[in-house]
Amino acid sequence: MSSFTPEPTDDLSIATIRTLAADVVGKANSGHPGAPMGMAPAAHVLFTRFFNANPKSSKWFNRDRFVLSNGCVLQYILLHLLGYKLSVDDLKAFRQLDSLTPGHPEAGHTDGIEVTTGPLGQGFANGVGFAMAQAHLGAVYNRDGFDLINNYTYVFTGDGCLMEGVASEAASLAGHLQLGNLIVVYDDNHISIDGDTAVAFTENVEQRFLSYGWQVLHVDNGDSDLAGISDAITQGRAEKNKPTIIRLRTTIGYGSKQQGTHGVHGSPLKADDIQALKLKAGFPPDKTFYIPKETYDTYKVAALRGAKLQSEWISLLSAYEKRYPNEHAELARRISGKLPDGWEQTLPVYKPSDPAQASRKLSEIVLSVITPGIPDLIGGSADLTGSNLTKVKGSTDFQHPSTNLGTYAGTYIRYGVREHGMGAIANGLSAYGGIVPFVATFLNFVSYAAGAVRLSALSKHQVIWVATHDSIGLGEDGPTHQPIETAVHLRAIPNLDFWRPADGNETSASYLVALRSKETPSVLSLSRQNLPNLEGSTIERASRGGYVLHEVEGEDLTIVSSGSEVSIALEAAGKLKAEGIKTRIVSMPCWSVFDSQDQQYRLSVLRSGAPILSLEALSTTGWQKYSHEQYGLPAWGASGPYQKVYEKFGITGTNIAAVGKKVVQFYREQGVKVISPLVKAL
Amino acid sequence: MSSFTPEPTDDLSIATIRTLAADVVGKANSGHPGAPMGMAPAAHVLFTRFFNANPKSSKWFNRDRFVLSNGCVLQYILLHLLGYKLSVDDLKAFRQLDSLTPGHPEAGHTDGIEVTTGPLGQGFANGVGFAMAQAHLGAVYNRDGFDLINNYTYVFTGDGCLMEGVASEAASLAGHLQLGNLIVVYDDNHISIDGDTAVAFTENVEQRFLSYGWQVLHVDNGDSDLAGISDAITQGRAEKNKPTIIRLRTTIGYGSKQQGTHGVHGSPLKADDIQALKLKAGFPPDKTFYIPKETYDTYKVAALRGAKLQSEWISLLSAYEKRYPNEHAELARRISGKLPDGWEQTLPVYKPSDPAQASRKLSEIVLSVITPGIPDLIGGSADLTGSNLTKVKGSTDFQHPSTNLGTYAGTYIRYGVREHGMGAIANGLSAYGGIVPFVATFLNFVSYAAGAVRLSALSKHQVIWVATHDSIGLGEDGPTHQPIETAVHLRAIPNLDFWRPADGNETSASYLVALRSKETPSVLSLSRQNLPNLEGSTIERASRGGYVLHEVEGEDLTIVSSGSEVSIALEAAGKLKAEGIKTRIVSMPCWSVFDSQDQQYRLSVLRSGAPILSLEALSTTGWQKYSHEQYGLPAWGASGPYQKVYEKFGITGTNIAAVGKKVVQFYREQGVKVISPLVKAL
Ligand SMILES: [Ca+2]
Ligand SMILES: [Ca+2]
């Protein structure tokens, strides 16, 4: 027996979505009408029959999450119909400057948008992150009779997303983790931008997802079989130990004269085509943005159902508070996004006599001391746990309990060798709320996840990357693993803090700022090799992004450096002193945080009067902003014991002293006052 | 009946490989002994029974290609045994500075290494590229009785590679393309760096590859079932319409006391363990790098088989030359890597009165005129053909003939939405020889392929990226699609030319240099919006990477810019002239090519005497190297019609004139001579 009870307004509502899609794209003269028209029935069934959310309280914690992975206009239309803060005028402003309806949905910009999509594959993986977050928080906080956190995550996805490697990675992990509350609807319309998917995408998608351990369902007529859609969703919800994918055969641009062709994918429908579409639906053919009252009424019912569910949930939460006051307090704090009071006090502090350690090890020490007090921290590595040093002793793996390898309450995620999937999943974990995800790989392989990292920053997800083996200092693995361009790439991403700490205090500082920055992702670039603890470094000073580590008055030279090269700069300064050249050392672990300091401070750190030389065992690109002269790697690194690799490239105290001397002489010969590179017109 | 005839030396040879692996890693005290020990039988069977290559002529064109995707010491051992230019001393120098045996195999560095591997998943996708190259060149040049190009491609891969999205993308495409000459051996040892693969990788790999359309075989005892291995390879070779994957169940570190555990993955074996291993093989337990004469003899037979095959092939080629002189001449030219004489003459030249066009359109025009004369150009797009404008009219798709969508002789590749796979496949196409691959997507999504792009540059593969929609100028798609950090990321990669041409002549110049640069990949960053043809641009001038587009003597200001912003800089110069401010304009389409010019030239372009202001609708990071002041995007772009987005960010003639005026005033007030940013100590 079908789960579905038809309503007289179903066809009307679906026609409303289809004609609205045509109108929205038509008015913007830009966008993708085809997929929204094809997916209108699935969206209608999902939102009127199943979806639990309160449009008037879009941040209700136990709401169902919806992700439109092939991001497009459909979502804006649904948000409007459901009563989120999105008016018809907003729909009319689709793809116009500063509107609430930009070309692709942006999290934090438009009410009801959970994650930023458009770049293909990302939304799919974000959805896996949502489902993991729900599974984890449910396992930690639910109690008998208190099923507080049990929402579903629904993802609509297309061929394009499924072709992307990031989606494959996330799908494989989702199957491994047996995420029962994840339901993906795959819009199998046989069309992508290059035309028929026969030209490039002929794999058996159902079989592929079976291989990942998913429940695989299909609906042959996604254009009008509402009962079939409803039954499949029902079956997806019932399966508690597997994620579900529903392959929905649809006709792109259904109802258009060009339906089923590539012509309706990325271009507006012609005026006569839209008119015919409206006539067929019984709508006034010349009226644009027509929305029958019956459609609004239908969606109002859905919205009221959500509001009722939320109010019941609030009652449940009150009862929970009485019964489990500690758990309630912690959950409430986590939902608010505030970290526990005083966690900063546990950050390790070092003095110069403390033994040299690799900053990846210093990172492990930080994680070991702060994790017990911050249950929000859910971390993992892309199969480099022993190298990244991200698993805190005694932590439990996040695994389906049937595996006997861990539980859903576990806080350590085994991502497998899936960097891009990991990054996109972490965006989902962060977007869900209550979780501060950290992820780990070698710095060089953060590049595999570049597509997800930039969306962290754009969407303001607080994701922390533990990026170890951050230079030629990794030694033997060689140039295939030694980052050159990675740091400047990440430094150029807006709203991303790239930290390269030089010692223990700076490592603590990087965690301090990263954890305080609720709307900014951070990449912590950490060494494989041991680093001495430096005289002059403190958490407070390093927290400003750049500071004078070693001060001298009337300097002949300032060397500005980061991470593992700061101690080499100090060594060079010692050698230069012996030759009568007074050298200041500035440590600059984080450009973006330094840039956010007031100008007076910045000019006091990188002051006029003597040349400034930058030193980093990476590409010099970008250091010209902070220095007059740059020393770094001329091209690729090399394979060998790390000390020998440093020698090969002249990054030693002796050679940097020689370089510094050359710089001082050059500017002396120039005979003009040296002005700070920060003194600028713009 | 089995295809396999055992030889008395088989066990001895396999033991040699296993003990050598332990010794090589032991001496270096760094590396991965476990996988080579586990894969020794498969390697032995492949190289002694099947592999067609001549170690004394490692570039023979029709050789079988071998890729060790989970890059490690096994390949060095095989190269040595087979007689490539790699001595025992080279093996002893594993992972030492400047040795022929760096931590991961590097193409172009060590004789017999086809592609650079180590970064997981890349080698798998390179192998797909090899198989595509073979299929294509065979279809173009083979004739009845002249099966000139028919080699196999063998890829050894591990769990790590198969978890990577880039491998999933390439595998799906390989299945679609029905690449019969591709044989992948999957080392299913149930171990990855984090321990048992049960923690993260539990998908059904066989089913997954069936879903992609591969032939899927398995050998249950990869540790000693040589006949089983041989039979599977034989079956793989016999299947002509599907790629083959052989799941080989092996024991990592087979023979070690720690076999089958994560302990042998990435650390040297203990001394007593190595001794026991040698004793068991009947080798002197204290002798390191022991290679029995019988093992050398066995591999010599394999090498001689390859030499004989090559000499037969050379005879065949001579006969082909007589029968098909034109085809022979073209094939010989392609193998040599030389482009046809005079192709440069066909490059379009523009004058200012020619209509404004988008540089993606200018790129299409270049491709249209040069493609007929350069059959080496094999291009495609990641499902953005109509936007990237990469399909030249009349070109045929590269498809299996059974699809009726094209043929293997076709030159246009439908990559699907698989940017990372596309980049890594293109590396394989380039490494095969005879092909200059170009690939296309939006500039923003080149980031998805960053892992492959950096390996193009490191490995010196001539791959050309047609990267359109290169700024906020793409307009409505919004910040999710508008690159900010992408240009500086690519500019910081050594041995990669990032071109951002400003008009028609500069677009021609970028193709000219990209096609002449046989050992350098290039990314051509192209606009969606129309660009006027500029007074002063020529192919010759632009080919120097940067030049004075608009000269004035005694200038007050120089604006240096690239791509779509150069014409805006010119407009600003006009407005400034009206206010009595003399402004020079430098167009700098390619930093790295400009950097390679002599210093005198560079200083003549970016000369001292007046402030230099950079202008680009991207992050300003890095422009400090070439300018005193920078104007660009402060953070993310915005969704809207592109002219409005440019206005929002002040990138208009009017505003840039105002900015320029401010700069001029500031440096006047400073009252000191302005020195070129290129005048430096280092
Ligand atoms: Ca589609
Ligand atoms: Ca393995």
How does CATH name the architecture of the largest domain in chain A?
3-Layer(aba) Sandwich
CATH class of the largest domain in chain A: Alpha Beta
How many domain modules of chain A? 3
Characterize the largest beta sheet of chain A: strand count, sense, and whether it forms a barrel.
6 strands, parallel
Greatest chain-chain contact: A-B, 129 and 129 residues
Mean pLDDT of chain A: 97
Q: Please report which band the strand proportion of chain A falls in: under 5%, 5-15%, 15-25%, 25-35%, 35-45% or over 45%.
A: 5-15%
Distance between the termini of chain A: 70 Å
* Fraction in helix of chain A: 40-55%
Bound molecules: calcium ion
Sequence-ordered SSE layout with sheet pairings:
The structure is a homodimer of 682-residue chains.
Chain A (H helix, E strand, L loop, with lengths): L9 H19 L5 H17 L14 E4 L4 H10 L5 H5 L29 H20 L11 E6 H5 L1 H13 L4 E7 L2 E2 L2 E2 L8 H7 L3 E5 L6 H13 L5 E6 L21 H11 L11 H31 L1 H12 L20 E2 H12 L6 E5 L3 H4 L23 E3 L4 H14 L3 E7 H4 L3 H10 L4 E5 L17 H6 L5 E3 L4 H13 L5 E4 L4 E2 L7 H4 L4 E4 L6 E5 L4 H13 L4 E5 L3 H5 L3 H7 L6 E4 L13 E3 L10 H7 L4 H18 L12
Parallel strand pairs in A: 1-2, 2-3, 3-7, 6-7, 9-10, 9-11, 11-12, 12-14, 13-14, 17-18, 17-19, 19-20
Antiparallel strand pairs in A: 4-5, 8-15, 16-18
Helix pairs in contact in A: 1-2, 1-3, 1-10, 1-11, 2-3, 2-9, 5-7, 5-15, 7-15, 11-12, 13-19, 15-17, 21-25
One calcium ion binds next to strand 4 of chain B.
